[in-house]
Amino acid sequence: xxxxxxxxxxxxxxxxxxxxxxxxxxxxxxxxxxxxxxxxxxxxxxxxxxxxxxxxxxxxxxxxxxxxxxxxxxxxxxxxxxxxxxxxxxxxxxxxxxxxxxxxxxxxxxxxxxxxxxxxxxxxxxxxxxxxxxxxxxxxxxxxxxxxxxxxxxxxxxxxxxxxxxxxxxxxxxxxxxxxxxxxxxxxxxxxxxxxxxxxxxxxxxxxxxxxxxxxxxxxxxxxxxxxxxxxxxxxxxxxxxxxxxxxxxxxxxxxxxxxxxxxxxxxxxxxxxxxxxxxxxxxxxxxxxxxxxxxxxxxxxxxxxxxxxxxxxxxxxxxxxxxxxxxxxxxxxxxxxxxxxxxxxxxxxxxxxxxxxx
Length: 359
Fold this sequence. Notes:
This protein is α/β, with parallel strands linked by helices. The chain is 42% helix and 13% strand.
């Protein structure tokens, strides 16, 4: 596996001797250091596409990428809470970006920044060298890639499709099959991170699939993210993302219980947040989400309906390998209750409301 991390001035590859670092966004817990192994020292001498690349830090002080150092035509499908800021960062870096969304008006802010527009996924794919897709769920990901006027219809030899949606491994493998049948290359690269990390170019990419395509799009991933992992065969990226989000959802459910319990026994929940943030169980999610949760405010960074969807998919993954996950199963039920109270589009931290409703 490979990990590449943005620094202020350059990219530094980390080996197993490097101190442990977070592989999640500010809303995820850390993963163990054994996920970081041998680095890749350079891009292949013969890239998949006849394009020029240069790995650089989009955060470098006083440094910006030149347009002729970036890949040619980039497609982006899905202008939602994540896709829009990701495409914006590509545009800001000088990329030639073509966008599509079911609701065209969501593309207008990107068009005003210089993006091109095509009316269907297949037309985007046909006009671009590499096409990214960020869709809400497995059904949408399949439809946009493989349905009528789907991206696969516009793919062919020399092109690449990178699905950065969070889906299950089976869905990712189905999309892979459709894309590869056209002669194109496929990479799954779900992201760890939510709205703010997407805006700041601080996502973590969990990639798997065609290694040559991974190396080819690496500069683009580095524009949109702070680190990236290559995990091998298609399905591994999806599995890693589901495990991470299973942990995150369970953590938020338990944190919600703690906030309410502290208040009910006469403690100040704000002090609890401070105590937790200074201890061994500290996670950025707690200090970032806690204060607004105490005020019953849930500005959406990661919709609750998506967290519940990811828990459902993670439970399915666990079932497929006969792994018991009782804590995640209980958390999933709590998110389902929250959805029944009309909180689907609120931030996933609104799961605390499901516990209040049980009073």
